[in-house]
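tool_call: predict_structure(chain=1)
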Amino acid sequence: MKVFCGRANPTTGSVEWLAEDENYDYHQEIARSSYADMLHDKDRNIKYYQGIQAAVNRVKERGQKALVLDIGTGTGLLSMMAVTAGADFCYAIEVFKPMADAAVKIVEKNGFSDKIKVINKHSTEVTVGPDGDMPCRANILVTELFDTELIGEGALPSYEHAHRHLMQGSCEAVPHRATVYAQLVESSRMWSWNKLLPIRVQTSLGERVIVPPSELDKCPGAPSVYDIQLNQVPPSDFTVLSDVLPMFSVDFSKQVSSSAACHSRQFEPLASGQAQVVLSWWDIEMDPEGKIRCTMAPFWAHSHPQELQWRDHWMQCVYFLPQEEPVVQGSALCLVAHHDDYCVWYSLERTSSEKNGRVYPARPVCDCQAHLLWNRPRFGEINDQDRTDQYVQALKTVLKPDSVCLCVSDGSLLSVLAHYLGAEQVFTVENSAASHRLMNKIFKANHLEDKINVIEKRPELLTSADLEGKKDLWRIRSPCGDCEGFDVRIMDDMIQRALDFRESKEAEPHPLWEYPCRSLSEPQHILTFDFRQPVPSQPLHAEGSIQLRRPGRSHGAVLWMEYHLTPDSTISTGLLKPAADKGDCCWNPHCKQAVYFFSTALDPRAPLGGPQTVSYAVEFHPRTGDVTVDFTLSDTLDDGC
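tool_result:
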């Protein structure tokens, strides 16, 4: 049976409906999930195991049976740990059916079917009683419901319900407690991810400046957190304005509330500057004494940075204050963390609030349209003055006094550049109403509303009348096999089957500047697109091979675009400069690159008589923007990761 699935056309942005296998969405979720990354997180696994063992021992010492409720069991790993630690029985809850089915098989394969019951329900639907899913309430609560923000996956409502309906009054919880930390910083780079800054344009008549509309300057921004690998951000990119502040804690062994709250912490700034950004992370303590601790702290705040665990499923948070505010060294301020049941946000106050925990200001919401249209990397790209200068120089080589320019790009400022550089007439195609409204605000703020013609249409629907008659990351995919002594190869097989579906064979976008990686080959040209020519009606094909010249294990391939603005000016969405001798890469921080993961890894150090190669076949469909790539490794290793 086929089902229709909505899919965004990468060229036009419009939603198209395609017939897919009825399990298509499940397979895509499985293939692109972080299950494997979590299982490869050795630090997480060890700390959970230690915490579970300690909780089971405490219950046994009280003379009670250890009855475990595992919410969001995934593969069933934590439940199997609990039984191994001596738990009498485990109820493993998993709402995602393909994973629940896999958990049943994994539990059976490891010999725990008599001690673990997998329940394919949301935890809020689980019943307790003689005819229920659980005959009685549990006394040990084990969960892994956390995201980078801690509460973004609904941890608070799930805990709240579990304590009220599924757990005994006095129970153990693993983890026992979580604490959220914050640090106030000034960072022009990070601030450029959130606000439109003045953009300077050098013209023959002198410097012109594109100024942001007041609505954009006053807008508090998007409410969502920006999660990144802070360990990859150079310390020179920000100035620390405060110590690391513990903002709030949640005790998971007691009744948890999902109600809105705020928590204020007074501090004295370490330096004077502009308060712009709050960096945040959390740690979890697996036991009441806090001896078993798993932290997401970046290297400068980590108690043992040499033991730093790289992980992709939990990173660190970047929050933007509604407005930048000047702070003075030594002059006391209060940083306030607000949260509802799913989101956290921050504000800065001059005095301590006596209503700590009882003031609930509304979550910030974008009212300028820009934060709905541009994501954080796009803000950074638009604010990149070097990139703007390259476009200005390229436009100067082609623009003439009688030029008529058509800008086809939602939310692009190229139309303003073209006008400032002397084009006779400029049209800009804004595909959506949101981009139309935003660009009108920018044009008005710069007194250009009667200078640039806005066309709200899909590009392929343009006619000459519209122009007034003028025409001119690998571990995420790595098989787990054995995890902490438990066989989870059934999950590996499930993910591999999911990867066989068409959508999952396509590229995954990843910001590679956040991920430590090395290039094992030199960049290779694959396809060229000449934008001066009509779009081809037939697919474009390319085949070839890439030699792996540096030692290391090849986990995947990366594709990116290089835009040749002029013969001497190129903007790359991938590598910004040739890889160093050892293969260290410098990636464009404003763009995501297209990553194709290999199911097994190739090791060019293998003694096979010379450099190893990866063969590729690329097919590009110009009309839809679809790209399919097949890679063939000349040699594979079964233990690739």
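agent: The mean pLDDT is 86. Proceeding to next step.
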